[in-house]
Amino acid sequence: MTKNLILGTAGHIDHGKTSLVKMLTGVDTDRLPEEKARGITIELGFANLLLPGDIQLGIVDVPGHERFVRAMVAGVGGMDMVMLVIAADEGVMPQTREHLDICRLLGVKQGIVVLTKCDLVAGDWLELVTEEVRDFVAGSFLERAPIVPVSSRQGTGAGELKEELRRMAARIDQKKSDGAFRLPVDRAFTVAGFGTVVTGTLLSGQIRVGDEVELFPSGICTKIRGVQAHGSTAETGSAGQRLALNLQGVDNNLAKRGDVVAPRGLYRSTRTVDVEIVSLKSASRPLKHRSTLRLHSATYEVSAQVILLGRESLEPGESSFAQLRLAHPVLLLNGDPFVLRSYSPSQTVGGGTILDPAPPRRRRRSLEALELLESMSLGDEMEMVERLVSATLLSGISFQDLLWRTGLSAKRLDAALSLPLSSGKVMQMVRDPRLFLSRESFQALCDLLLSRVEAYLALNPIKDGISREELKTRVPARSDGRYFTQCLQYLEAEKRVVADRDQVRLPGRKGEDVAGNADIQQKIEEMLISGGAEPPTVRELCELLLLPEKPVIEHLSLLARQGRAVKVKNDIFYAPAPLQVITEKTLEYLRAKGEITPSEFREITGLSRKFMIPLLEYFDSLKMTVRVGDKRIMRRR
After folding, report:
1. Does the global pTM surpass 0.85?
2. Could you tell me if 486 and 429 are in contact, meaning their C-beta atoms sit under 8 angstroms apart?
3. Which is the most buried residue in 62, 134, 377, 397, by most CB within 10 A?
């Protein structure tokens, strides 16, 4: 099985990187007319090298000029190994240093130092340059790397270099193909008869013809119409390969370097990321809180404000946790390396690793935030997942968002969740889609719901309980209504509430038994009885009892349910006995006459209009009478 790795170049301008690639592969990676005319590399160039042992190297040739560092950084993303190219006649130069810093910041771990133009120097000079280079790379990932002298013009050293590349490649693990695919775009162009094509290094997973994909950050959804791997047509592309993808139905002006091709609907773009940041030892000044720098990661560049957590500045060589607030959305995942460069002067000042691609705004000295980032930095997957779930408080977090924020594959995430779930520290609240809440947050939500029940009953002393539907509306907006059932079941199991059919109440509570209620109800009943045919209205009862309207109405409603009062209108209640007298007089008249007018009703009852009209309408509602014009006619039963 072929091992696919990416080999990059790095080094100062005019140190022979492109000539070296041509010597190894026969391919001139300078394809632009301007590059040919000026004799310098401006854009990324690409070539392939097949080595013994079925090792396929995709070579990325980067520009060396300081004006094209952006393109150089785009080429480093995805490199498995690098050739640091240093001309023997010039030695270490400014871009040699910056390119090595960038490779180190972007996580390149393996490489070879290649001394080019050896035909231009004498043997003793070559020895001096070799010593200089050995001192220069001391303390870096290239400290023990081979230093191979070559002459691209004469072709000498090619065999030794290929053998060193083969040995190194044999020791390097290929990128994993399990997990979701992600391809940062380094070129986008149109091919006649095919449409838009994008190229890049597949960082993870596998991509196939027909896959539905999303183009970030624009959110354009499309399908893969065709795949080329290392220049050959293929059905599938795997992690570690240089790929060209033909995108179906996407205009060329909608795809560009800096975009990312990923599975449709899996990720979201972000404008805020939590990071671990390191300031280069060679930085000319401290990195200050709220500095605005250029962030380079994968193949894009974006302006970023640096919010240092827990400190005001970062001295050269120091590291810290920080939050970066980006000028526009990009796709970043946990574990992605990045480089920070200043605007003026234009130079690399630091870099680091993405820890959380979707954090909330942090309080700068929050101990919880720093502990969460510490766990993410150390790579303890179980602790990281636990802390992420806990940090979402009452909102909880979905399996999909955990995938995005942790950068884990679904299999590794399930493994990281298994122990917290079995121990009860994390609870799965919803099955589809899977939603998780920490045990602590779950109990806090249950306590909050219970307090809502208690508060409601305190304001409604006559009621036995609160309806389920009304209580559900009191779940905090930042939480999820689907958690309600489990919370209610837990409170019932703890005997803290009783859920009867559609009502939730406190154990042993009955509204009429609440202290003081019986006295109030007796007073209301006595007032209605003493009022006789014209009892006090609700407003008058409120004034007599010195109570708000709501509890008075609730007491009246309870008396009505118990048969101790009768509701005639919203603001008029009668004691049963006086109302019965009025009803019998009215029925006696109707039996004799068959109908009754308002004036006749006033004559037989002596009531004022304030009570007369509501009572006539009340008799209509009982179907004792029916209104015809101004008259009420007795209904036949």
Report:
1. no
2. yes
3. 62
Tell me if 40 sits within 8 A of 13, measured CB to CB.
Answer: yes
Report the run of H or E that residue 116 belongs to, with start and end.
strand 111-116
In angstroms, how far is CA 167 from the centroid of its own chain? 42
Q: Which of 258, 149, 264 is nearest to 210 (CA)?
A: 264
pLDDT of residue 365: 75
Burial 245-284 (b: 16+ CB within 10 A, else e): bbbeebeeeebebbbbbbeeeebbbbebbbbbbbbbeebe
**Quick check: 207 and 219 in contact, CB under 8 A?**
no
Tokens standing for residue 250: 């996407």
The answer for residues whose C-beta is within 8 angstroms of residue 377's C-beta and 6 or more apart is 276, 321, 353, 355
How far is residue 313's CA from residue 316's CA, in Å, rounded to a whole number? 10
- Give 482-525 as a 3 state SS string: HHHHHHHHHHHHCCCCEEECCEEECCCCCHHHCCCHHHHHHHHH
CA 13 to chain centre: 41
**CA proximity to 328, closest of 261, 269, 405:** 269
3-state secondary structure of 629: coil
**Which tokens is 195 given?**
């449409």
Sequence-separated (6 or more) residues with CB below 8 Å from residue 248: 195, 222, 223, 224, 225
602 close to 612: Cβ distance less than 8 angstroms: yes
Separation between Cα atoms, residue 182 and residue 336, nearest integer Å? 12
Q: What is the chain's length?
A: 637
- Spatial CA neighbour of 57 closest among 109, 9, 114: 9
Q: Encoding tokens for residue 608?
A: 């004022």
Is the dihedral angle over the CA atoms 244, 108, 42, 56 positive or is it negative? negative
Q: Which residues of the chain have pLDDT under 50?
A: 35-37, 40, 42, 68, 515
Of 506, 548, 541, 543, which is closest to residue 521 (Cα–Cα)? 541
Residues contacting 573, CB < 8 A, separation 6+: 528, 535, 538, 556, 559, 560, 565, 566, 567
Please tell me the distance from the alpha carbon of residue 559 to that of residue 566, in angstroms, as a whole number.
8
In one letter, which amino acid is 531?
G
3-state SS, 19-70, equals HHHHHHHCCCCCCCHHHHHHCCCCCCEEEEEEECCCEEEEEEECCCCHHHHH
Enclosing H/E stretch for 578: helix 576-593
Contacts of 131 (CB under 8 A, 6+ apart): none
Helix (H, G, I), strand (E, B) or coil at 82: strand
Query: Counting Cβ atoms within 10 Å, is residue 6 exposed (0-12), middle (13-18) or buried (19+)?
Result: buried
* Cα separation, 278 vs 317, whole angstroms: 7
Q: Within 13 Å and on the Cβ side, how many CA atoms surround 454?
A: 9
What pLDDT score was predicted for residue 31? 61
Structure tokens at 359: 């954090």
pLDDT of residue 521: 87
Residue 527 has a pLDDT of 95
Fill in the DSSP letter of residue 106: T
